Amino acid sequence: MTFGGYSPEQASGQSGTIVDAIGKGAEQLIALGAANVVVPGVLPVGCFPIYLTLYQTSNAGDYDQYGCLKRFNALSARLNQLLQSKVMSLQGRYPGARIMYADFYSHVYDMVRSPGSSGFSTNLRACCGAGGGKYNYQNGAQCGMAGVSACGNPAASLSWDGIHLTEAAYKKIADGWVSGASCDGTVKLKL
Length: 191
Hints:
Helix content is 39%, strand content 10%.
């Protein structure tokens, strides 16, 4: 199982480098006068139809109780843990700026775990696809290509095309960020 040529465990080894670059970017924005900086976390990629299709296995132990690939979600969780620590560090170094961590992971994972409570009838199946199996995703038949169609009610789906969330899902996430439920200036490490 590889992710961009790396196993999830190998890719995890690059997380610190990625987070340091994000931290430097935030510091550059602050140096340019930014007073409010939002650092978004990473989605639970192990729940996305593209990864579920490309890396599916016959081993039930590779999946969590909601059907997501555990190794890929562990990679996302590790990166998010490092991002949250980086935001806490930046908050201490730049008390005049408001540096916020925006939690994508928990919000989306909650929608995967309980799609009905978020108004979704499907959680791991792409709305727009060409009938590519259980997840309605095929690399060679992506949304916008000939022969690919969208479901009748995109607002009832969590995943738009297997790679991106639907507009309805992004709205729920944005509402959580704006209300402060999923984004604030106080970082609490969540795993």
